[in-house]
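This entry is listed as follows:

___
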Amino acid sequence: LISSATKSLRMEMEILEKKLQDAQMKLAEKDGDKDKEIQSLKRLISELEFQLTMEKSNNESFLDKLRKEIKHKSEDLEKLTQEKTQLIHSLSQVQEENSLLQDTVRRECEERFELTAALGRAREQVLELRRLSATLP
């Protein structure tokens, strides 16, 4: 009876040891799979971090270019504004000079008209004097 019980216990122990080995192998396989998955995720994280770094670098470069372009455009705008102000000032001076010249031409035309009228009267007087002198001995 003892021998049979011992034998039965040994067989049960062998079965349990085999189950334990199987469970340990499955656990080792799962650990290996988890390690592989962890390594895969670490590689993916590294790639994504690299892509993020590249994107940041590209964005900073793009922002620098935009800042330079904005600065250049601002300088151009300031120059154009100054040129516009100068042109407006020059236009104002030219308009003022044009107005003075028109006024001068108007006065000279008036003087010419008066002189022409006076010359016409003087001619008439000369002709009148010639007629009178021709009639006188």
